[in-house]
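Field: COMPLEX_INPUT
Field: COMPONENT_COUNT = two
Field: RESIDUE_TOTAL = 761
Field: MODE = joint
Values follow.
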Amino acid sequence: MSASPALLEITNLRVSVADQEILCGVNLTVHAGEIHALMGRNGSGKSTLSKVIAGHPDYTVTAGSILFKGQDLAGLAPEERAREGLFLGFQYPVEIPGVSNLEFLRVSTNARRQVLGLEELDTFSFEDHLQQRLELVQMDPSFLERSLNEGISGGEKKRNEILQMALLEPVVAILDETDSGLDIDALRIVAEGVNQLANASNATLLITHYQRLLEAITPQYVHVMAHGRILRTGGPELALELERRGYDWVDAEAGVSSRADLAVGVSA
Amino acid sequence: MTASAAAVSKSPAGSAASLGEMVAQPYRYGFVTDIETEKIAKGLDEDVVRLISAKKKEPAFLLDFRLRAFRLWQGLEEPDWAALNHPKIDYQDIIYYAAPKQQQDKKASLDEVDPKLLETFEKLGIPLNEQKRLSNVAVDAVFDSVSIGTTYKAKLAEHGVIFCSFAEAVEEHPELIERYLGSVVPIADNYFAALNSAVFSDGSFVFIPKGVACPMDLSTYFRINSGDTGQFERTLIVAEEGASVSYLEGCTAPMFDTNQLHAAVVELVALDDASIKYSTVQNWYAGDENGKGGIYNFVTKRGICQGRRSHISWTQVETGSAITWKYPSCVLLGDDSVGEFYSVALTNNRQQADTGTKMLHVGARTRSTIVSKGISAGHSSNSYRGLVQMGPKALGARNYSQCDSMLIGDQAAANTYPYIRSQQPTATVEHEASTCRISADQLFYLQSRGIAFEEAVSMMVSGFCRDVFNQLPLEFAAEADKLLALKLEGSVG
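Field: COMPLEX_OUTPUT
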């Protein structure tokens, strides 16, 4: 067990959408200074978990709890969670016509700074503040004047997510398949960004399908999610094993082949 | 060749419930000023027309103008082609003239104006006092049927610019009024224009002489105060050869649970190389969330680009009124003249708007641009209706139109009715249209970056309107942005 404080504590979390249970009792604890990887097939519940933590309104928490820095997140709006230092890097960042990247980044940064007790940045001081973080993700500043996530490639959208993470300086960052759709160069930039931002007082949860991101960012813990639950936890070697053997053996060893099996098992 | 198209999109059900709940409309200007008012009896006949003219001590030509209009109006029918539903207006149940008692005799200066009136305008954010005046904007303040004062008149006169109430212009510059009144909007142009021509009360007159760039922005602020009075103002702006002016118009009214009629006429005349920029922020009382009360806004606005290379630009931000029926138009007569129409129309609750423009290309190489942004929320209905006409002599004329609609919630309707007529094969007409909705995913994205729900909506709405806001004078743009946010503010689920 780590001596560092627990930043994220998820206990027996059960979540439904439209009366269908998607998460069937998730347990996960993330301490300061840690990097965790959450792996699993499509549909295993990884993205749902990340959205629930961020407060997406479509999901209903039916049981369990999520503590963030010791505080129960139930009842906190997504914007309040974000201002407290929770960050979700989206798998598919949406395009928002008419809202410029620059204005969005500034408003968002200031919302976080207010909670941190830092002074609000005006347009000019914000641009200085932004400059060094732009270098971190190697973005061409010309995108700043354009509409949010519009007219940029998929890879640039992901780098824009890392840029936001750099600006918001989150306590817990959840990156939902930030590596998918990236070429080698973009992957390296994203990984370097994540590594540079990680420190002893924050934590990162990487959601990924592939071992290749974990070659660039080394997690202390690897979790395997299946059928709405974390079935197995190990060290970095678990990711290598998954790469080699696939996911079926995890199901087999846990004796689980569907969410229904878990619904019975956990509620008992 | 004639082409017309109508596209109707009704928003499907099932968007985020919390968005649908954003229907509350706090209205900051709903107060009534308690002031002694002189009103004439309800109803309209020839005697009332004569009485209004007599009260204003008008010359014979103007009484004649009114009477001709009144007689024509009696033979006209209220138009029924707009996508608007409202109970029949009883024109005999309206008071056609109301004025604060002290204002009946003209005031020599603003210092003599009833302090209650000054206070009213100060409350509306339009200080008329010498020390607090908006720098670089001259204001004509119209209260019910009369203008209560105009600022910076002397300074403008130094440049030969005339800016005064319409009544004053009739008295001091009758030859200009006789020459231009009704020259752009003829008295029998339409039902509401005819009514206005018969009973118009006050308004503003602007004259920019040859070669003068007006040294400051001019503005008129219209305030309806009486609950049973119609407001029928008349605005006339003339820019001579090479002259230019930017004119702003604002309006508010108290909250009554009855409807008040507002039927204005605005005429613009631009001679060779002249330029007129006319901006409106319309915030009449819109009625409550069930559609009770609010202003019926039936307005005729038209400008004529009479001269070569003249330029008329309309920018409107329409957020108020229970009903809006308004098509600020340009007649592009002079060769190489330019017409523009930039519009944001926001409807919420039970508001209905049918608004757009007409661009009538007569001269060669005339150009026009139409950018319309409609936002519909609540149970409202918001229609764009526009005509682009290329006449037989409009060689090489061009039009570009862009009509975008944004739906908020699942009960609002957005319609687009673009009409295109071309009799000139070398003319080009382009029309683009789009409909979008504020999606739950977009809102969640912004929220997950620390931006509150309402601010997220307002960011997206003002982003949607940016092309139009960019056309507004700076202070007005900020005001318009705030106004839109306010209109959409409400209890968020």
